[in-house]
Amino acid sequence: MAKIFDYEWSGSVNVQSRTLLLRSPCEDKEEMLLMDEALRGLHRLTQINRNEITILLHHLGGDVYTGLGLYDAIRYSTCPTKIVVYGACMSMGVCILQGGTRRVMMPHATLMLHSGSTSVEADHNLELNAEIKEGTRLDEEYEQIIRKRAGISKKKFQEMCQRKTYLTSGQALKLGLVDEIFKA
Predict the structure, then answer these.
(1) Using CA atoms, how far apart are residues 32 and 97, in angstroms rounded to an integer?
(2) What are 100-133's pLDDT values in tens digits?
């Protein structure tokens, strides 16, 4: 039996809480493990009590589907969540950050925004069109989540995402991407 956060899991089943963790095999094993650990951890902590959960986040970006899954898990947790950014929070990490009830950034941490990228393999033009459509939909989801929470205009967001935009904690606070900068 695997033991995550002192909570007994047998594979993807937690008998005490009657919970299943379902996922498909993933080419990127690190993304899969991150998602598994985060979901199990959130679930376990919500079972203990309804106090605020602190998530320490250093995220260099990654798979959009995994990022949206983590965002949803945090955003719709039954407990309030405080996300504290250490080091870097880039690309999908910024989207995940928006899921927190409270968004805190360490003074020397960096955020980075950019447009998503899609690599496409298709045997037929219809498949190619479907891939392009899905890439556009994912870009719009990413944009909507960040813009809605931060209150950034569409024009400003799209200007920032034309190229990679790196932000200090002060800049991120001013833009509404975080709620506070950590003070000792």
Answers:
(1) 19
(2) 999 999 999 999 999 877 666 767 777 888 888 9
Residue 122: φ, ψ to 5°: -145, 140
Exposure string (b/e) for 153-183, b if CB count within 10 Å is 16 or more? eeeebeebbeeeeebebeebbebebbbebee
* Cα separations in angstroms, 5 against 84, 90, 148: 19, 26, 33
Tokens of 131: 């891939």
The model's pTM: 0.83
d(CA 95, CA 54): 17
DSSP per residue, 129-171: HHHHHHHHHHHHHHHHHHHHHHT--HHHHHHHHSS-EEE-HHH
- Could you give the count of Cα atoms lying within 13 Å of 147 in the half-sphere of its Cβ? 16
Pair type for strands 110-113 and 102-105: unpaired
Domains and CATH numbers, the chain: 1-48 (no CATH), 50-181 (3.90.226.10)
pLDDT in tens, 70-105: 999 999 989 999 999 999 999 999 999 999 999 999
Joined together, the tokens standing for residue 74 give: 């945090």
